[in-house]
Amino acid sequence: MFESLTQRLAGLFSKLGAGSGKLTEDSVKDAVREVKRALLEADVSFEVVRAFTKSVKERAIGQAGIEGVSHADQFVKIVHDELTAVMGGETEGVRFDSSGVTVIMMVGLQGSGKTTTCGKLALWLRRKHKKSALLVAADVQRPAAVEQLKTLGKQLDVDVYHEDGGRPPKICKRAVEHARKQGHDVVILDTAGRLHIDEQLMDELAAVRDAAKPHLTYLVADSMTGQDAVKSSAAFHERFDLSGVVLTKLDGDARGGAALSIRHVTGRPIVMVGVGEKLDALDLFHPERMAGRILGMGDVISLVEDAQEKIDQDTAQRNVERMFLKSFNLDDLHAQLVQVQKMGPIRDVMKKLPGQFSQMAEMDGLDDSALHRQKAIIESMTGWERHHPDEIHAQRRHRIARGSGTSLRDVNELLKSFKEMRKEMRKMKDSFLGRAGLRQMEKRKKKILKQRKKQKKQK
Predict the structure, then answer these.
(1) Do 273 and 184 have their domain in common?
(2) Which pLDDT band holds residue 300 (cuts at 50, 70, 90)?
(3) Exposed (0-12), middle (13-18) or buried (19+): which is 223, by Cβ within 10 Å?
(4) Residue 92 lies in a domain
(5) Are 268 and 123 in the same domain?
(6) Over the stretch 326-357, which tens digit does the pLDDT of each residue have?
(7) Cβ neighbours of residue 382 under 8 Å, at least 6 residues apart?
(8) Closest by alpha carbon to 250, among 282, 279, 218?
(9) Of the ranges 27-41, 88-102, 268-282, 333-347, which one carries the lowest mean pLDDT score?
């Protein structure tokens, strides 16, 4: 997302940094003009661009110099702050009703990903807030909409309320009563959509709202539709007083204009964003972090949060210790590759890193195929080979290549890089851990070995 905008702004800032380092009124005007063009090319609405560039220009021209900080860096900071403000300033989050069951009404046009987003939201609520959600199939217009939601519910182990026949307002009202009896914390209403906004759709949604009395009303909008998403957000907000917007397919929109326009046009925040097809690919929208990613600063905070959630910390700790204690083998490397894959596609991980790392995400040939090859090679080895990689001779290497569907060169490269990595880690261990850390790890190793011997004797 925002690839074109990030590239344009990166080019602009590098020019500013390569200059005299001083921002005159003329250089500010030139820089703002370039920012304006970049935003318009990213499909940001003209109204938003005009207000944004005006604010940046006023702040930059009146900005006093800061000792030790270049004027170009100050300009980047101003742009970052204004981007954050345009997108809402602070993370909104989901506001739960304190009196009991929180009812969330999801509205939107057909094709925006509304039904899938309902399932993703139910999973996110369970993982992040330990909430039990009830999905409600209130879209009786679209063929197979009910079956789609039931299938999602089965995949996610989330209860789905549905009725054969009946009108959506009554279905939703009975669903809320059912949720209270069954002890659910949240009710998510998957309402009907249309290919375009019409009075019939709006009247039906209004009837559902009046019957179910939702605490939150979220519009699900497809970011790939650009300014059409902004226009539909404004139309829905005018009728339903939206609580916020959920933007889908943000991972596929290289321009990202909708994300930069919705808050300014509707006055309502982007609450969440869909960043992939997987059911766990739904995140809170963080304006400040997103501004950093747009400016090529990365999003290390989100990357760390992903790692904490998806990576087994005990396994990671054990692998680090084994690397330093000369006992790291290919089984451990395989475990590390599995952990890395849990973080998602390598491109998405790279995009969250700052500077040159985020730019590397756009390199040709950067994909997950190398990780898959390395895993396949290790999985094609015997247990003995994984524990004695230095003793894998040519005949064994040929067999491993055939068994993994890779080439002899791939096998040789893996073994060579593994050997070099282990060598470098041994060099680093003294400076990285210190004597106290090494002693502690040695004690832990002896304790584990002692426990294993005891278990063998008992068997």
Answers:
(1) yes
(2) very low
(3) buried
(4) no
(5) yes
(6) 667 888 888 877 777 776 666 666 555 544 44
(7) none
(8) 282
(9) 333-347
* pLDDT digit string, tens, across residues 115-142: 999 999 999 999 889 999 999 998 888 7
| Beta strand pairing call for 186-190 and 102-107 | parallel
User: Both tokens of residue 15?
Assistant: 């020019």
Strand 133-137 versus strand 186-190 pairing type = parallel
Does residue 93 fall inside a structural domain? no
Mean pLDDT of 399-409: 92
CA 186 – CA 100 distance, rounded (Å): 9
Looking at the structure, tell me whether residues 313 and 431 fall in a common domain: yes
Residues 65 and 146 in one domain: no
271 CB-side CA count, 13 A: 20
CATH number at residue 425: 1.10.260.30
| 327, 243: one domain | no
118 with 216, same domain: the answer is: yes
Model confidence at 235: pLDDT above 80: yes
Indicate whether this model's pTM tops 0.70.
no
pLDDT tier at 433, thresholds 50, 70, 90: very low
* For range 96-118, the mean pLDDT: 88
Please give the full DSSP string across 100-130, using - where no structure is assigned: SPEEEEEE--TTS-HHHHHHHHHHHHHHHH-
Q: Measure Cα distances from 54 to 4, 49, 57, 74 in Å.
A: 22, 8, 5, 17
Burial class for 7, CB neighbours closer than 10 Å (0-12, 13-18, 19+):
middle
User: What does the radius of gyration of the chain's CA atoms come to, in whole angstroms?
Assistant: 27
Q: Assign residue 376 a region: left if phi > 0, alpha if psi is -120 to 50, beta otherwise?
A: alpha
Residue 137 makes CB contacts below 8 A (sequence gap 6+) with 145, 146, 149, 150, 160, 161, 162, 163, 171, 190
Kindly state whether residues 290 and 310 are assigned to the same domain: no
- Of the candidate ranges 239-243, 258-262, 268-272, 453-457, the one whose mean pLDDT is the lowest: 453-457
Q: Domain residues for 258?
A: 102-296
Which is more confidently placed, 247 or 427? 247
Q: What is the residue whose two structure tokens read 């299938």?
A: 151
Same domain, 233 and 312: no
**5 vs 257: CA distance, rounded Å:** 9
CB 243 within 8 A of CB 105: no
Does residue 201 form part of some domain? Answer: yes
The per-residue pLDDT of the chain, averaged, comes to: 77
- Residue 97: inside a domain, yes or no? no
Domain total in the chain? 3
The structure tokens listed for 429 are: 């261990």
